[in-house]
């Protein structure tokens, strides 16, 4: 008996999963067979719709068959799993975007890989026995097969709750969360399927649907939103531990079974996905970044060992104390050398001007994603995977997109004057430099006059963010040009915010960095004062990082060595963001403030202190957080 039954019955393409004794767990061969069937039926006029169901009462599909993944991973063959996930995700994307109706009948357990098969079609039917969940964090993975798309779209912070707890959804909950569409009593499923086969009319699904009483999740929404609003796993755990309720205690117990690394990455993935860049392609690409590394660098093999092989239910997770460094999350989610390729994905020709400490890794990530990158830098520097041109004009000739990463506004103006005449009408120039607002707007006007799109998109995240693909882009330009640039932002970074018309990105960057410069100074002053008062630095961090002293400078980039997440302070202040770059940005903020008559006394004082630190002291070539030893030394003097 075959593991899957594929046939055409009447007007319907029929797919029946047929491994009831294994809860219809999907094998690689089953995934391949489903994809081949969908490809055949796509342009077959005799097939009006596709019906996917499963044999047995216990499960539609309880996940992927992971035995081979475990064995190959234990043997050091990580490529096997990468190929499996790539094929599975390609199928998930095909189901999601299929041009004909896809109707799935989800009885019993629908989990993990079963969600990818059953929850991306156009009409998802649930019944009395339906139980849908994303339990991947329990085996050292993250919600995948496109599941992060649905989690990101779920109401409020329900996505975080479902992804981190593996909570099982009955029919009403699945409809509420967006994993299913309609409830039809299971005794009526054979009749409904027969009608779909006979008439090929998907309207029969809505006709058969009946109402269902609200489930538990809707009543828990307020508590879920309150406890899962944090920016990182640690914030969520802090909120749950500080909440005296049965809900919080039960939730902490459920999360305590799961891989902390997987949960931390799940939170980060959902936060990156929410917003205008949300798409199935983006979700699958992020998932693949994790799963491609899951065997070698994650907890997947240990999770399978504890749950399936030894069945001791005692996995030895990384970061068992749930204190997951931001660097560990960034490592699991950074772009891959070989990106996931989905059907219909268009690769661009990109000219990249300025291959310095920031530009080179950004260009490398674009090339690794499959784009053709042609680079140029006056210093002769290169980027791995990029072709090198002899001039800026040569680099941009024939390019769909041109990206610049340059030192200042005047150089941007000069480069734009050189390359814009060589760019084709309809191409787009994306400037990722940090420059003055007037220069950005001047170049935007010149580009527009030539029929060329323009986006000013300065970045935040430093050299580490450029290398790891975790930058934040602050973008200015038209909505159309921002949409053109967004797929590239998704490769090079974790977030892109459309701030307004041309120049708005630069305005946001200099305002943001004025805050950063001032708060870093305040943070360094506080640690220096704590030293003088005899307060232990770790105790100082423990208080400030969880109370009103919370800030990015304190919590994510702590200037005190050995305290908080790893930062440049732990590497003798080797620059992640150099003090002279902070000086430049503060200078731009004060230049802009003067131009519009804005009162910024803290920004002005921060500029003065960084100018003294860089030009008169030992700050040049050091990280901007090296203000701490500066204040400590001056205090002792």
TrEMBL record:
Keywords attached to this entry: Branched-chain amino acid catabolism, NAD, Oxidoreductase
The answer to whether the entry has keyword DNA damage is: no
A Gene Ontology biological process term: branched-chain amino acid catabolic process
Instruction: Cite the EC number.
Output: 1.1.1.31
For the 3-hydroxyisobutyrate dehydrogenase-like NAD-binding domain, which residue ranges apply? 503-628
Source superkingdom: Bacteria
Record protein name field: 3-hydroxyisobutyrate dehydrogenase
Species of origin reads Sulfitobacter albidus
- Taxonomy-wise, where does this protein's organism fall, top ranks first? Bacteria, Pseudomonadati, Pseudomonadota, Alphaproteobacteria, Rhodobacterales
């Amino acid at each position: 008996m075959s593991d899957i039954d594929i046939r055409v019955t009447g007007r319907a393409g029929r797919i029946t999963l047929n491994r009831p004794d294994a809860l219809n767990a999907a094998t690689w061969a089953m995934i391949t067979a489903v994809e081949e069937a969908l490809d055949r039926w796509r342009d077959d006029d005799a097939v009006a719709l596709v019906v996917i169901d499963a044999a047995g009462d216990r499960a539609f599909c309880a996940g992927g068959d992971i035995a081979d993944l475990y064995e190959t991973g234990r043997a050091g063959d990580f490529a096997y799993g990468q190929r499996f996930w790539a094929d599975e995700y390609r199928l998930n994307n095909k189901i999601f975007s299929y041009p004909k109706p896809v109707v799935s009948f989800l009885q019993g357990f629908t989990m993990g890989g079963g969600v990818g098969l059953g929850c991306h079609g156009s009409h998802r039917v649930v019944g009395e026995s339906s139980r849908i969940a994303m339990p991947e964090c329990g085996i050292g993975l993250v919600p995948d097969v496109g599941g992060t798309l649905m989690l990101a779209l779920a109401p409020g912070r329900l996505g975080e709750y479902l992804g981190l707890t593996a909570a099982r959804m009955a029919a009403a909950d699945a409809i509420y969360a967006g994993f299913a569409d309609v409830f039809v009593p299971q005794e009526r499923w054979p009749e409904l399927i027969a009608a779909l086969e006979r008439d090929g009319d998907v309207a029969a699904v809505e006709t058969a649907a009946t109402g269902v009483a609200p489930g538990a999740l809707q009543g828990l929404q307020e508590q879920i939103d309150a406890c899962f609003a944090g920016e990182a796993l640690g914030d969520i755990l802090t909120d749950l531990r500080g909440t005296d309720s049965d809900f919080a205690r039960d939730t902490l117990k459920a999360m305590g079974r799961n891989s902390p690394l997987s949960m931390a990455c799940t939170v980060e993935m959902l936060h990156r996905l929410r917003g205008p860049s949300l798409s199935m392609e983006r979700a699958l690409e992020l998932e693949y970044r994790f799963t491609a590394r899951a065997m070698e660098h994650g907890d997947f093999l240990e999770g399978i060992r504890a749950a399936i092989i030894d069945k001791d239910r005692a996995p030895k997770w990384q970061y068992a104390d749930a204190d997951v460094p931001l660097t560990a999350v960034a490592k699991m989610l950074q772009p891959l050398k070989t990106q996931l390729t989905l059907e219909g994905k268009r690769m661009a020709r990109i000219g990249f001007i300025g291959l310095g400490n920031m530009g080179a890794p950004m260009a490398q990530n674009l090339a690794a994603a499959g784009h053709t990158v042609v680079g140029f830098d006056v210093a002769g520097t290169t980027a791995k995977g990029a072709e090198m041109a002899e001039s800026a004009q040569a680099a941009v000739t024939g390019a769909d997109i041109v990206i610049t990463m340059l030192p200042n506004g005047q150089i941007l103006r000069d480069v734009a004057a050189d390359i814009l005449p060589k760019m084709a009408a309809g191409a787009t120039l994306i400037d990722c430099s940090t420059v003055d607002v007037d220069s950005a707007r001047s170049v935007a006007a010149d580009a527009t006059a030539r029929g060329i799109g323009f986006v000013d998109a300065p970045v935040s995240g430093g050299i580490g963010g450029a290398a790891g693909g975790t930058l934040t882009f602050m973008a200015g330009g038209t909505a159309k040009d921002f949409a053109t640039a967004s797929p590239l932002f998704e490769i090079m970074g974790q977030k892109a915010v459309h701030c307004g018309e041309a120049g708005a990105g630069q305005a946001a960057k200099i305002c943001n960095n004025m805050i950063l410069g001032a708060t870093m100074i305040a943070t360094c002053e506080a640690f220096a004062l704590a030293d003088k008062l005899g307060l232990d630095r770790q105790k100082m961090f423990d208080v400030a990082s969880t109370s009103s002293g919370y800030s990015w400078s304190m919590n994510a980039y702590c200037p005190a060595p050995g305290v908080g997440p790893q930062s440049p302070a732990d590497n003798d202040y080797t620059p992640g963001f150099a003090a002279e770059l902070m000086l430049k940005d503060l200078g731009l903020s004060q230049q802009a403030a003067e131009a519009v008559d804005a009162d910024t006394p803290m920004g002005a004082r921060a500029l003065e202190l960084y100018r003294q630190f860089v030009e008169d002291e030992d700050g040049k070539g050091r990280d901007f957080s090296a203000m701490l030893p500066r204040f400590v030394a001056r205090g002792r003097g």
